[in-house]
Amino acid sequence: MDNTKNILIVGVGGQGVLLASEIISAAAMNGGLDVKKSEVHGMSQRGGVVSSHVRIGPKVYSPVIEYGQADILMAFEQAEGLRAVDWMKEDGVAVVSMTRLVPAIVTSTKAFNYPEDPIGQMKQKAGNVIGVPADKIAGELGNPRLVNTILLGVCSNYLPFDLEVWQQMIREKVKARFVDVNLQAFERGREIKQAAVEA
Amino acid sequence: MRELMSGNEAVARGAFEAGVKLAAAYPGTPSTEILETLGARYRSIYSQWSPNEKVAFEVGIGASVGGARALVTMKHVGVNVAADPLMTFAYTGVNGGFVLVSADDPEMHSSQNEQDNRYYAKFAQIPMLEPSDSQESKDMVLSAFELSEQYDTPVMLRMTTRISHSKGVVELGEQTKGPEKKWVKDPAKYVMIPGNARKRHVVLAERLEQLRELTEKSPLNIVENNGSKVGVITGGVAYQYAKEVAPDFDYLKIGLSFPIPLKKIEQFVKDHEQIIVVEELEPYYEEQIRAAGIMVEGKKFTGHLGELSPKRVAEAFLAAGLISETHAAMIPPEEDMFPRPPVLCPGCPHRGAFTALKKLKVTVTGDIGCYTLGVMKPLNALDTCICMGASIGNAIGMERVKGSEKGTVAVIGDSTFFHSGITGILDAVYNQSNVTTIILDNRATAMTGGQQHPGTGLTLMGEKAVEADIEQVVRALGVKNVRKLDAYQLEEGIDVIKEEMDKPGPSVIITTRPCVLMPKRIMEEPYTVDLDLCTGCGACFQLSCPAISASERTNKHGHPLAVIDESLCTGCTLCAQVCPEECIILRSQFVEA
User: Fold this and answer.
1) All structural domains of chain A with their residue ranges
2) What would the pLDDT profile of B298-329 be if each residue is shown by its tens digit?
3) Does domain B2-217 have CATH number 3.40.50.970?
4) What is the pLDDT of residues B149-195, one digit of tens each?
5) Is B582 helix (H, G, I), strand (E, B) or coil?
6) Of A179, B48, B277, B548, which is most buried, counting CB atoms within 10 Å of its CB?
7) Which tens digits make up the pLDDT trace of A45-85?
8) Are B395 and B409 in contact (CB under 8 A)?
9) Partners of B408 in the β-ladder
């Protein structure tokens, strides 16, 4: 439906994809919107591809997003971003961490290669692709597990929720002792606007 | 109060609001979180993991007959295990309400088949409810208990992966006490000797007639009239996909889907110029509607394999001539990218066992659990996987007909052994099989997220329990050759497996390393690669360890040298054991060198 916003979050098992989608969903529900969020558990947790579909709007039916329908693509890993690029709308935005995770199937068999410059390839297919040096920023903040919150900060520029709502959701969903550093990470992400980062 | 809940969390909430007193299950994707939520959040309900679905079901029957509301949950293939009590419990009926949750897995996200369990409700002739989102999942648990007590029957709530694992907004209600019932001795109802069962079969038939009347007027079977010429007959998550594609069509949404409301359907068909049946998996509605002499189409357009999606429903509507165009962007993407399949975790003890088996080139009959991933490249170390407990029987048969030249070894996990491996071992002993079984004992039901089981010493609710001792169990069954094995010791593993395979009679090898994730994360000192010594031979890559990847440097043939991600390495030592150059060393040693 046209007044539904579709957010597709992709990454690799263990990267924190589900926490990011929890926070977006909670922010939407807090704003009185209908929300559906879908992901598959089980096998996918063992280092496989993880994707979470979040759909928000006045009334949401399908819990899954279709090809070509994502308003926002949030990718925790470059190649996973490229894999999901066809799910984007033409005028959608992609927020992609520059993280590279090369799986064993690429290193141990000669059948597959890791793609050359996945973010560059994404830019050829989609108009608005933002590469985010999330690992670098997370390193500066002293915790490699902040990549998801940094990306969330970037995405927040494209979602209709107030900063206070985001901050409240982070306080609710993140363990108490990590709240402050997550709020900082969110702020660092939020400062990154379209085409601001080319590393 | 509104809350964002998965379908599974909503079922747990429904059980809480319905005043359920007992819940039992064996973990299985996508059903597991129902009992986990009960154990974590609704602790006034007594909840337990049983060794398998059949026992869980029987415990539930006991609670129901004893007068309490009981909830039993399992994945679709679990109902096969519990089918024996199910079919006869349909005859006896209940005392306290009884609800069976069957969580089906269309598309086989984490399953060995995608059987459509709606046929079980029809087979057992018990009412079935099919929710289409989280709110309905909660509401239908309450309806199911009412139906169960009103019609004296077990009721099935049929979930699917997309319902169980999708979250949606749920309006919460209050906890109720549930009806107060007492156990009343009634052998004519509960003792199914032939003389009693024949009478209860009549009761079952009469009950079915009453249910057929009920389903026609049930508010769970809703007509949504939008003044369209097109009518869609649908249920479950397929309803949501269809509404997404064509919100303005008319809908007959089936929530009480056994027995299906044939008269209502007949009227709905008469009222519309065009009709399509949209259902996931088998033509369960369509067959019954057609058998009633009402001509409808559905599977011709939607297909019966895998999950539906808005795209597939749109294509079906297009093919049926109900819409003139589907969204232009709904084209499947071309994908020439590497796959990223699930893999055994860094430090997983199964990796050692499979590497040893691979070196021995034996045939390996497998089972259900994380270790099923042993089939993946480059390990390629698994030859069969059928169902829970099948590895041992498969190996016995294979060994008896000498199907494999190099011999056959069964591998089975600890939780799967308790579930249905014990009888396999008993068969091997009783029938003097020469089969060797490796029990990969990692002290957890790991694949589904590390649930407790009879060997872990803790219950679902966190109470201390007797730890079932696998070695004592197999010895008591009559196995003479029982060995323990450290799965991280590769050479020793190869020797032990070889020795046991050469012995006459059944042998059991029990591995001793726990899961690296549960109950606590294991992180020993990591290893590192001395790149000045690494020749790029690739031996360590063959372990398929996520911590080992290609470095930027290559050897003279252009093959990459190895690098270890120290944040992932658990220090299991396997790669150091397979490295012919001895260039994989403890990080502390590397710094000193």
Assistant:
1) 5-190
2) 999 999 999 999 999 999 999 999 998 765 44
3) yes
4) 999 999 999 999 999 999 999 999 999 999 989 999 999 999 999 99
5) coil
6) B277
7) 567 888 999 999 999 999 999 989 999 999 999 999 999 99
8) yes
9) B363
Are the beta carbons of B516 and B522 closer than 8 angstroms? yes
A-B CB pairs within 8 A amount to 171
Mutation site, A7, A21, A40, A124, interface B, largest B CB count within 10 A:
A40
Q: Which of B526, B272, B294, B504 is nearest to B399 (CA)?
A: B504
* pLDDT recorded at residue B335: 64
Please give the residue of chain A at the shortest CA–CA distance from B161.
A40
Cβ neighbors of B543 (< 8 A, separation 6 or more) are B351, B355, B379, B574, B575, B578
- Closest approach of chain B CAs to the CA of A162, in angstroms? 20
Chain A residue closest in CA terms to B134: A36
- Where does B527-592 sit in CATH, by number? 3.30.70.20
Which residues of chain A does B552 touch, with a Cβ-Cβ cutoff of 8 Å? Answer: none
Give the fold, CATH level 3, of B221-319: Rossmann fold (3.40.50)
CA B468 to chain centre: 23
**Distance of residue A53 Cα from the nearest chain B Cα, in angstroms:** 9
Residue B592 is predicted with a pLDDT of: 53
Q: Tell which of A46, A65, A90 to mutate to test the B interface (max B CBs under 10 Å).
A: A46
Q: Do domains B221-319 and B527-592 have the same CATH topology?
A: no
pLDDT bin (cut points 50, 70, 90) of residue B378 is confident
State whether B169 and A35 contact (CB < 8 Å): yes
Written as six digits, the tokens of B252 are 């007959």
Radius of gyration for chain B, computed over Cα atoms and rounded to the nearest angstrom? 27
Place of tokens 């709905």: B268
Q: Which of A66, A86, A105 sits opposite B309 (nearest CB)?
A: A66
Residue of B338, B521, B529 to mutate, testing the A interface (most A Cβ within 10 Å of its Cβ)? B338
Among chain B residues, the shortest Cα distance to A111 is held by B338
Q: Check CB contact under 8 Å for B338 and A113.
A: yes
Residue A111, min C-alpha distance to chain B (Å):
8
CA distances from B343 to B98, B375, B377, B564 (A): 39, 10, 9, 16
The whole-angstrom distance between B277's CA and the closest CA on chain A is 18
Which residues on A lie below 8 Å from B114 (Cβ)?
none
The CATH-assigned architecture of domain A5-190 is 3-Layer(aba) Sandwich (3.40)
A191–chain B nearest CA distance, Å: 29
Contact indicator for B337, A10 with CB cutoff of 8 Å: no
For the stretch B515-555, pLDDT in tens is: 999 888 899 999 999 999 999 999 999 998 988 988 889 99
> Would you call A61 and B247 a contact, using CB atoms and an 8 Å cutoff?
yes
Residue B277 backbone phi and psi in degrees, to 5: -100, 125
Q: What per-residue confidence (pLDDT) applies to A46?
A: 67
Helix axis angle, B349-360 relative to B490-502, nearest 10°? 50
- In tens, the pLDDT along B439-460 reads 999 999 999 989 999 999 999 9
Query: How large is the C-alpha radius of gyration of chain A?
Result: 16
* CATH code of the domain made up of B349-511: 3.40.50.970
pLDDT digits (tens, 9 = 90+) for A145-196: 899 999 999 999 999 999 999 999 999 999 999 999 999 999 999 999 754 4
The structure's pTM equals: 0.95
- Segments in B125-193 forming alpha helices (H): 134-151, 161-165, 187-190
Interface contact A61-B110, CB threshold 8 A: no
CB contact under 8 A, A47 and B448: no
Measured between CA atoms, the residue of chain A closest to residue B538 is A108
Q: Where are the domains of chain B?
A: 2-217, 221-319, 349-511, 527-592
> Chain B: nearest CA to A40, how far in angstroms?
6
